[in-house]
Fold this sequence. Notes:
Number of strands: 12
Largest sheet: 6 strands, antiparallel
Helix content: 25-40%
Strand content: 25-35%
Distance between the termini: 84 Å
Amino acid sequence: MAKGANQKKKLFCILELLQRESDELHPISTERIIEYLAANDISAERKSIYDDVQALQELSYDVISSGRKGYYLGAREFELAELKLLVDAVQSSKFLTEKKSNELIKKLSRFCSRHTAGKLQRQVHVFDRVKTMNERVLYLVDTIHEAIAENRMISFQYMKWNGKKELVPRHEGKRYLVSPYILMWEEENYYLVAYDEQADGRRYYRVDKMADIRIEAEQRTHSEEFTENAALLSKKTFGMYDGKEERVRISFEEPLLGVVLDRFGTDVILLDKGEGRYEAAVDVQVSQQFFGWICGVTGVKIVGPDRVADAYKEHLKKQSKLYE
């Protein structure tokens, strides 16, 4: 290819070099820019580099001059602190395989110089989490989002672990048909909240255990069941298990204020009952997992309604029989 034709790539090549190699501590000299362009079969003179830098600045790129030391790219799309936050989120996400985590972190590192990228790579080894075996979880999520955007139902197989540590279809491979509505990130997993046509109710499905998702022609149903947003729904749900929604009154000691507010939000109305005890009315979906949360927080007591308190007592009796 003629050198003249390559001149069209000149600005792009300079920007690429600045993005990959430069930062405040590592400016790129004019000579280095000319050498890089020559390696890409692009001729350049010192004066033309000044004009190119000015052109990049006019295009809103933050190219800063360090005098004789050269140039570096200042403000970028992501600050280093933001990239570290994203890397931490990617690395600690159980629904991503180790391979996919490393691929995403490598892509994120392109948003900073190679000198700074080393700081991101060191963070890769901070976490040691068990990763899901499902390589296709990102594509499953994408398919679900597409179905939600198109207001269509989906069908899929739902998997479970067997004694050989293999994921096998539930119900002999029978397909589930649901109306997808909300994707939730809870307990380090992706969950789909959907209306299950066969069960005739709201159900939760772990996305990494869904297989062979197909977008169906039918329109979604029961949209009135999903008027609340995901943040509000997550406060009411425990362990992604559905149950009858109730307003439950709980009593607890003052040291547990933080635990209750962290779980149910700061909009919960607190009643000071005196002598260091508080009472709160919280909207929850009553389930075995809710009882498990109550049992796991020593000092929290269900004070109403009576049917919920009685159900909790029955739950404790069943658990205690396992140790008789």
